[in-house]
TrEMBL record:
The gene is cas2. This is CRISPR-associated endoribonuclease Cas2. Belongs to the CRISPR-associated endoribonuclease Cas2 protein family. Its EC number is 3.1.-.-. Homodimer, forms a heterotetramer with a Cas1 homodimer. It is an enzyme of class 3 (hydrolase). Mg(2+) binds at residue 16. NCBIfam families: cas2 (TIGR01573). Keywords: Antiviral defense, Endonuclease, Hydrolase, Magnesium, Metal-binding, Nuclease. CRISPR (clustered regularly interspaced short palindromic repeat), is an adaptive immune system that provides protection against mobile genetic elements (viruses, transposable elements and conjugative plasmids). CRISPR clusters contain sequences complementary to antecedent mobile elements and target invading nucleic acids. CRISPR clusters are transcribed and processed into CRISPR RNA (crRNA). Functions as a ssRNA-specific endoribonuclease. Involved in the integration of spacer DNA into the CRISPR cassette. Coiled coil: none annotated. The keyword Metal-binding applies. One of its GO terms (molecular function) is endonuclease activity.
Length: 109
């Protein structure tokens, strides 16, 4: 299968975790750091995303996130195609911003 913008996926993780106690803040920080270690990038404070070259690769990272789920709070996991991601419009205030860079794909014959 050739790589294309419909097969390449982005995995988005949305979360709202409690931060009321010192233990809650520790769990929150650990969850964030574990996402970063798995190759996710911060998109907004509670939204992290990761570029995946295939459905199989995305499934691996989704399983890892599920193993990291904290005992309390809300976490959402969503996948979208590279084509859908490319149609997103980003703004900082009223100024339009560029989308994050897509990692380069290497195609072998």
């Amino acid at each position: 299968m050739r790589l294309n913008e419909y097969r390449i996926l982005w995995v988005l993780v949305f979360f709202d975790l409690p931060t009321e106690t010192k233990k809650d803040r520790h769990i929150y920080a650990k969850f964030r750091k574990d996402l970063l270690r798995d190759g996710f990038s911060m998109f907004q404070f509670s939204i992290y995303l990761r570029h995946c070259s295939s459905r199989e690769n995305a499934d691996v990272h989704i399983k890892r996130v599920k193993k990291l789920l904290p005992p309390k709070g809300h976490v959402g996991i969503m996948t979208i195609t590279d084509k859908q991601f490319g149609m997103m419009e980003l703004y900082y205030g009223k100024e339009e911003k560029d989308l994050p860079n897509t990692p380069q794909q290497l195609e072998l014959f």
